[in-house]
Amino acid sequence: MRDIRVAKPYARALYDAALEQDALIPIVADVTKLILLTEQSEEFEQLINSPVLSPQFKSEMFQQLFADAVHPLVLNFLHLLASRQRERYFVAIGDVFLALVDETAGRLVAKVTTTVPMTPEQQERLTQQLGAYSGKHVRLETTTDPRIQGGFIVQLNDTVFDASVATQLQRLKQQLAKG
Which of 14, 46, 53, 86 has its CB 3.0 to 4.6 Å from that of 81, i.e. a possible disulfide? Predict the structure, then answer.
């Protein structure tokens, strides 16, 4: 909960600055890339979350790592976060920022869980079906979870479509228990 309260004003400031500089597309790409880096690199995740490392050191590391890799606005944003000791909230800020971009573009984000990765054709078909259902453009965020045993689970705002084998088996078990 605290992450979201901290993240919202920073995400809004980044969004407004990206619009002001007419750089929304590269900023979205860089934020997405950095969120992915945080999730995939234990070293980078430790860098941004370490309370032992000084803000100055973190800022210098951001400069060395990203000077030529991200838009200058994103690099300045990382420096700002480090100076205010808010870099550990970067993923939450990035998520709120991307949600803000989607919201203003009239897109909904559908979180899809499957047991195996979806093919591009399956993703396209699901995107079209969810778009027809919601009346908006839909962007998929896919994850895999073998615990669902097959099928899929889709969360679209507050609506959940659970067509997983695990849930169907659970329902069958409950029906059999009732007699």
Answer: 86
Which one, of 158, 147, 154, 94, lies nearest residue 118 by Cα?
Answer: 154
Q: How many domains does the chain have?
A: 2
The average confidence (pLDDT) of the chain is 92
CB 135 within 8 A of CB 106: no
Number of helices and strands in the chain (H, E): 8, 4
The residue from 71, 102, 133 where one domain ends is 102
**DSSP assignment of 110-178:** EEEEESSPPPHHHHHHHHHHHHHHHSSEEEEEEEE-GGG-SSEEEEETTEEEE--HHHHHHHHHHHHHH
Q: How would residue 71 be classed by pLDDT, with cut points 50, 70 and 90?
A: very high
Q: Summarize pLDDT for 15-68 with one digit per residue, the tens.
A: 999 999 999 999 999 999 999 999 899 999 999 999 999 999 999 999 999 999
From residue 63, how far is each of 29, 36, 54, 68 by CA, in Å?
A: 18, 19, 14, 9
Same domain, 97 and 118: no
Collapsed DSSP state (helix, strand, coil) of residue 109 = strand
- The band of 2, judged by pLDDT with boundaries at 50, 70 and 90, is low
Pair 26, 93 in one domain: yes
Domain span at residue 136?
106-178
